[in-house]
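Hi support team,

I'm filing this because I wasn't sure whether my run with 2'-monophosphoadenosine-5'-diphosphate finished correctly. The job status page said complete, but I'd like someone to confirm that the output block is well-formed before I use it downstream. Pasting the exact inputs I used:
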Amino acid sequence: MITGRTVVAGVAGNPVAHSLSPLIHNAWLAKAGVDGVYVAFSPPADGFRRFAEGLRGGAVRGLNVTVPFKEDAFALADRLSPRAKAAGAVNLLVFEADGTIAGDNTDGEGLLGALARQAGFDPTSGPAVILGAGGAARGAATTLAAAGSPEVRIVNRTLARAEAIAGLADGVAFPLDKVAAALDGAAVVINATTAGLSGQAALDVPLGRAPDHAVVMDMVYKPLVTPFLQQARDRGLRTVDGLEMLIRQAAPSFEAFFGRPPPQDVDVRGLALAALEG
Ligand code: ATR
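And here is everything the job wrote out:
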């Protein structure tokens, strides 16, 4: 039921039509009986600022922000949380009644929550290896460093980009052809590259060089079991999927929009899996 008091929130991305966030948030809203709605917005690729500026004052309570607008949202926010500053990106904007815009980043919370939930992973337990050096990798590296990882290793095709992130996360940079050395003693290996997306070849990572206790995660959730995760399973390693990260970054966003945590007793993962398969 949409009423005269319905609180509006949403996600902005381009493209955004396949986002699972509306499904997740609206399932939580329905179960909690909150008078709210969560919709998808697709501003033009060069039009995020104009779109979001128009929401000042709070006609829309807040937005999740996804590809390609996380850096635009970072630049737009009047205030940034420490974790958004560290990530250099914003995935959550809140439009305050006084006209200001607050920027936050819940992706790191999603990452750590997924690792804990699906693998019981403790970031202090050993070195973290991050594959890639784009925005997703930066967020993962700064999150793991802040969570007490003893060493963050960034592996990237373009070494200079890995070095830039290593500088931010007090980590170590490796070129892709030295990935085997980076895997030595790793507690967790996270794919934050876009290789393997849209029919490209997946990264060829010698996971046999990782220890038996290593946890392997992919930030991509389509397909749920990526070739990278399948390779980890074939090797007998524990895996964590990107869908769990998506759900876990959504929970603090829901609370920011609607003033209460999401209800526990909704199988949003099952709903999302059904949508992914459909
Ligand atoms: P995002 O901001 O979403 O993380 P991005 O900035 O486009 O995305 O970064 C994509 C990452 O995937 C980069 O680390 C990229 O490596 P380069 O920095 O060398 O470009 C990596 N990547 C993409 N395709 C790749 C491929 N085929 N092989 C190896 N790395 C790849």
